[in-house]
Amino acid sequence: xxxxxxxxxxxxxxxxxxxxxxxxxxxxxxxxxxxxxxxxxxxxxxxxxxxxxxxxxxxxxxxxxxxxxxxxxxxxxxxxxxxxxxxxxxxx
Length: 92
Known about the structure:
Blueprint: H1 3-12, H2 33-44, H3 64-71, H4 77-91
């Protein structure tokens, strides 16, 4: 079968003909429209959740010992710097 014949056959194929489930293995069963919609919704919700408050991205230069102190506590060090600055604003 030539490439052109294969492409022509694919173009003439109905969506219902794409896959026929043999009814044996549940893992091979095609998704229903409802399952597909739920999967797409879950996919769109991946990643960092949207915050009610927006933050502005900036470039700031800090002393290495300041960064080391915040980074040594692990992930979330940028949030801890932000919290420390907010705490400083409350007291000054």
